[in-house]
Amino acid sequence: MPRARQEPPLLGETLLVQLHRDASALKKARDSRVQKVAGITSDCAQSLQAWGKSNAACLVVRDNKALLVYVPYGSAPGWDFPGGQRHGGEFSCQTAERETCEETGYQVKAVARISSYVFKCEIVASNVCRKPVDEGFLRKDWFAQDQINGLRFRGGSWGDKQGTLREHLTSSTSDNAADSSTSDSALADMHDVCGCKVCQNKGFSSRAQTCAHGSESDRQEACQCAKRQQGSGGVDSCGCRPCYHEGWSVTRGRCAWGSSTDASEACECEKWKTR
């Protein structure tokens, strides 16, 4: 008996099968992602009755100091709350928790809602997130209320960050105030390789040929200043050699070719020298 002839599948059926396979693959990838972040996010949406789904950030306060990260990219880099973009299926508070862990290594839990996209968070554990994700770990530090005015904040994110910090931090008093005054005085005298008071937002202005408020000693200017003081192999505030096209790289945590040490980075490096 001759074998029955098998008709080839219709084109539409083939496309449906492929689409089904693609959808299954996407679901598996999404489920895998959810499983990976499950250990660093909590049931905050339920406990806070916060069901919003948007990009979000954490305000983390410990010992009357706030945890901030330095974001070096974008049109207005600067210090910011740890946070970022929502991933599929997350509630806003979970986004804030996950992003904080991925940027700082701290596992946190959202305990209060400050706004629709900023949550007050508490540290649960340290060094939980250890593998870089997306932009990787960011430079982080703890700041008291008295230090807020001296910071350059990242523009265009999370509303009035300075106001939020002042609301949730209390100013130091008595002995702490005296210590802060001394610290502020030392901070005011810190200068970059061009002799500009970098922690007061001053840098070298090629046009004015002097230090000026709002200017920033770029790599070429830093090179000229380093040459005058130390020769062509001179270093800037972070120990990088501007004449060799080196500058501080936040993402690498070291001097790197092609990078440029900006004012905030120079100020931080100068502060580290006094610790």
Task: Describe this protein with a few key phrases.
Nucleoside Triphosphate Pyrophosphohydrolase; 20% strand; alpha+beta; two-stranded antiparallel ribbon; 275 residues
Could you explain the architecture of this structure?
The chain is α+β, with helices and mostly antiparallel strands and 275 residues long. It has two domains: 44-154, Nucleoside Triphosphate Pyrophosphohydrolase (Alpha-Beta Complex), CATH 3.90.79.10; 187-273, no CATH class. Helices cover 33% and strands 20% of the residues. It is built from seven helices and eleven strands. It has helices spanning 11-38, 44-48, 92-104, 161-168, 174-188, 219-230, 263-273, and strands spanning 56-62, 65-71, 78-80, 83-84, 107-113, 118-125, 139-143, 202-205, 210-213, 246-249, 254-257. Strands 1, 2, 3, 4, 5, 6 and 7 form a seven-stranded mixed sheet that branches. The protein has a two-stranded antiparallel ribbon with strand order 8-9. A two-stranded antiparallel sheet has the order 10-11. Strand 1 (56-62) and strand 2 form a beta hairpin. The chain is elongated and about 60 Å long. The protein starts with 10 loop residues before the first helix and ends with a helix. Mean pLDDT is 80; it is low at 26-36 and 177-182.
